[in-house]
Amino acid sequence: KYLVLKPGPKLGTKSKLIGSANHQAVLTESNVIQLRRMHKEGMSQRQLAQIFGVCNQHVSRIVTYKIWTHV
């Protein structure tokens, strides 16, 4: 017998869970607001990454509004 694989749905057709609704989210919306506020007050991205348990690149994307744009 042969296994026939059918093509799945096209990319971009599935709805994505946003923010803390995503099961892989480490941060919540309130964490993101707090993180951005702390960055504006002068805390470094490296310090914020350590406090919130995420990598530096993730913090950078948050404070530049490349991710978590709905908050």
Indicate the topology.
Elements: H1 29-40, H2 45-52, H3 56-63
Helix pairs in contact: 2-3
Terminal CA distance: 51 Å
Q: What is the beta-strand fraction?
A: under 5%
* Number of beta-strand segments: 0
Task: Please tell me what the overall shape is.
Answer: globular
The stretches of 5 or more residues where confidence is low (pLDDT under 50) are: none
If you average the pLDDT, what whole number results?
A: 84
Oligomeric status of the shown chains?
single chain
* Helix segment tally: 3
- The H-and-E topology, N to C, reads as HHH
Largest sheet: none
What does this structure look like?
- With 71 residues, the chain is mostly helical.
- Helix content is 39%, strand content 0%.
- The chain contains three helices and no strands.
- α2 (45-52) packs across α3 (56-63).
- It is globular, with a radius of gyration of 17 Å.
- The termini are far apart.
- 10% of the residues are buried.
- The model has no long low-confidence stretch (mean pLDDT 84).
